[in-house]
User: Fold these one by one.
Assistant:
Number 1:
Amino acid sequence: MSADDFIVTPWHVEGDIDYDKLIKQFGTEKISSELLERIKKITGEDHFMLRRGIFFSHRELTRILDEYEKGNKFFLYTGRGPSGHTHIGHLVPWMFAKWLQDKFDVNMYFQLTDDEKFYSKPNLTLEETKKFAYENALDFIALGFNPEKTKIIINTKNIKTLYPIAAEVAKKINFSNTKATFGFTNETNIGMIFYTSLQSAPCFIEDKPVLIPLGVDQDPHFRLTRDIAPKIGKQKPALIHNIMIPSLEGPGGKMSASDEKGTIYTTDSPSEVKNKINKHAFSGGQPDIEQHRKLGGNPDIDVSYQYLRIFFEPDDAKLKIIHEDYKSGKLLSGELKAILIEKINSFLAIHQENRKKAKNQIEQFLFEDK
Amino acid sequence: MSADDFIVTPWHVEGDIDYDKLIKQFGTEKISSELLERIKKITGEDHFMLRRGIFFSHRELTRILDEYEKGNKFFLYTGRGPSGHTHIGHLVPWMFAKWLQDKFDVNMYFQLTDDEKFYSKPNLTLEETKKFAYENALDFIALGFNPEKTKIIINTKNIKTLYPIAAEVAKKINFSNTKATFGFTNETNIGMIFYTSLQSAPCFIEDKPVLIPLGVDQDPHFRLTRDIAPKIGKQKPALIHNIMIPSLEGPGGKMSASDEKGTIYTTDSPSEVKNKINKHAFSGGQPDIEQHRKLGGNPDIDVSYQYLRIFFEPDDAKLKIIHEDYKSGKLLSGELKAILIEKINSFLAIHQENRKKAKNQIEQFLFEDK
């Protein structure tokens, strides 16, 4: 791989991603300043994840807004592959989805793909991925979604609803399509080959347009769905993409639930968070204090700064001070880490309380097959 | 295709099948006279479909009998792809399965693969295949299966039970395997590619050995299942194969539910049966009566004679007389057809009565997901 090479697929992210290049590669649209203004006008708010380009790209978000302004509501759909406990990277699209639900007052479907993770991870059993699906559902509920308008789909549990829709999609996709889209080979198992049609299914669960906030690595699934939709008489799903959340150990990939060192789980204790960040968070600082004071740090590659920017410091003024102080050398790497640790632990203290309460709420969130 | 070439796959049967060659090609075992004797000894009866080689081949039937004699019961499983109304060719393995259920007093699962026929037939909708599934179920019930021990599975209806089992199988099958087994190509749709794992699933629905009576064209599915079974800690399914039932229009294929002229449906009226046989049943007779009287007919290629042999005349003595009289020229083709028409219409008169009654019984036969 040369310096500016990178790989982004639903099952593998590698390299230093150039998001402008990725937009061209995937054929999506950059979120323009006009579109930002339009969202701000409709919602009355300027979400920091939009403003900061954490959500940077889309497909047909403008159509969703056109319809909305005509009085035609859409619904939201996102999901998670339950290969382990939820980590803070997962919360990015979910938090944003919650904001969208609040602002547009729309239905939300959350898909937990226990089958996908069983197919794609040689060592995971279906019992394990199903157990993680329930654990992940608690984190999702803990974010405060409207229980009247939010349904959680677990693939093996809700397959009776999903399968007939997936079948309509599957009939229109051949092996060549999956090779071209996902890089599948003759050695790929047939569960994986079929699976994309199940990730498509929730797009058509209501007879309304759908908007999907999601990590850009999941875009290939819906590129296929968008090709198929008109062939089965349905509307194409619209997407809004977030960047990949870096691993604690630095850029060049994404945070992964199966890489324990590089990952902060929502179930981590305050001391675990502290240790992980102090030990593993990739620093943009200089090798020693003297040099740092003299040369300053590089916030662009500093993971602690990036986590503040992406998720934990929504206040632009405060973030700006941190940026300037770190760049000038006034703020040391250890101090920057301390800010992040405090932010994460405050967040997790509340989140973990809500997560406990979610155990009593989960039943009302679970989608029931008819 | 040269003269002795033939093709036998679950979705395509063509040519004049040499069953001894097919046994070698598929790697199955011929049902030996010793095995016939053993079955007769256990069941106390000599079923004409065994005696006449309609069921001609097996995989590990001996293991099933060994276990049975040790007191370990097996269960039965067969099925049907609901692409149209039931025709009399379908009834062959079902009638035999009913006999097996009666003699061994075992559970029976009948799978209706509405999804498969949707995937494999470009013009059929899932609503249509599901409708045919219910129609076909009536024919199955009409044959008199034990309602206490018989469950009908409809794939889209019972997917919640089937899918987790299918997933275990699917994880162990790759695209190469399906290419080698079914001749799939890059253009095959991903529903078809995944589907075989759903046909495997009922093999593992009980924790007992399974015996599958089935048309030999379905063997490839279970060849794959037998490869996978030990990898998922399960017993290999045992099989007993029947020959392909020829179309009315003659040898070189099998009767097909989508070829109306060549097919007698269980829903046909007496006059439809009469017309179809008189008009379309391939004859082994001579071009005119004079030559027929002189040279005699060929029962081996005469479809009417074959239907009597395969299904409608269980009495060997009566069949022998028909065979001799036709061969000698004493029995004319029209007369042979008249015998068959009478036999089919007598059978269908009772069957259609039972089929009506089945509408009130169907609920107790339908498998319910937990």
Number 2:
Amino acid sequence: MITYPSKLLENAINELSRLPGIGRKTALRLCLHMLSQPEPAITRLGQAIIDLRQNIHYCSICQNISDEEVCGICGDSARDASLVCVVESARDVMAIENTGQYRGMYHVLGGKISPFEGKSPADLNIESLVDRVAAGGILEIVFALPANMEGDTTVFYIYKRLKPSGVRFSTIARGIAVGDELEYTDEITLGRSIINRQPYEASLNGI
Amino acid sequence: MITYPSKLLENAINELSRLPGIGRKTALRLCLHMLSQPEPAITRLGQAIIDLRQNIHYCSICQNISDEEVCGICGDSARDASLVCVVESARDVMAIENTGQYRGMYHVLGGKISPFEGKSPADLNIESLVDRVAAGGILEIVFALPANMEGDTTVFYIYKRLKPSGVRFSTIARGIAVGDELEYTDEITLGRSIINRQPYEASLNGI
């Protein structure tokens, strides 16, 4: 166990090394870099982290990250409110928006159904999606979840819940390699997969 | 260019991606992780970064990172004040202390002489070392700088400056592979290299 010459340094290393992918050596390197930078720049960094966590909001409609009560996408009347794309996390919304190919709305689940991680449907933003569909105006649900067991389970659960509403279901085209995460897909492939979305029932044929 | 759903998020990503080795994708991943953590934990992280930069001190004697005016090593009367190990940075002090093999003092230069990076002797803590030697009581200077051109240049410059004082010079043993950085050396090799330090003049034979 290395002893550090300063409690301040040790404390910063302890906190930084709690982040994923940052070990104690990397944390020390980051701290020594911070000490070599002008003080206002590092105060800005620390404050940005505090502000992010303390002041972030989630859109009351789609549950995406937002600075407002209703996010820019849900508040945009030029977008197609009859189309809702269901994704796992805020970064999937960013990835799809970045393709410029989609003009509908979103619903962010905040995870996938995963018995291994103890995530049940109640832990996800599924009830709010059911409420949105029940409120009317939504004609189609586009599933954009990863093509693995947890993603498929989640899609199937939501499909079963919403089937009685008479809404149409589709999934993004499987041009994306099975098992890959959305965020690492190139924009063209991801954009195409939104355009060429398939009726959900068609993807059940293999089961 | 990805557009972010929140200014707070964008701001945090901008600040984090200024750190070495952290790109915008990694910064986004870190931010989403922070949002998934309890608020007090993330406030603590941000505050630790701010405190580190705002409140850090450097020892007035050896220039090492310290919480006090004089660091724990310089203030330790049980250590051998006649022996001063000259290192590039605070992390080299940590690496050597971690071996448990050295009971002398340190002097942290804060870099190496490097014309490529525009670092001249005036940018390093060399004058304060000259003053320490002039004040008397120091019998031996141990150079523990990397064995590359910049390290050798720095050692040679300090050697020339301090030669008239009659102090003895040594360099840590070259059991460490030439070109390697101190911080990645295992403790046993680094500890041995302190014990088996050689008179500086001996290392000049090859020149």
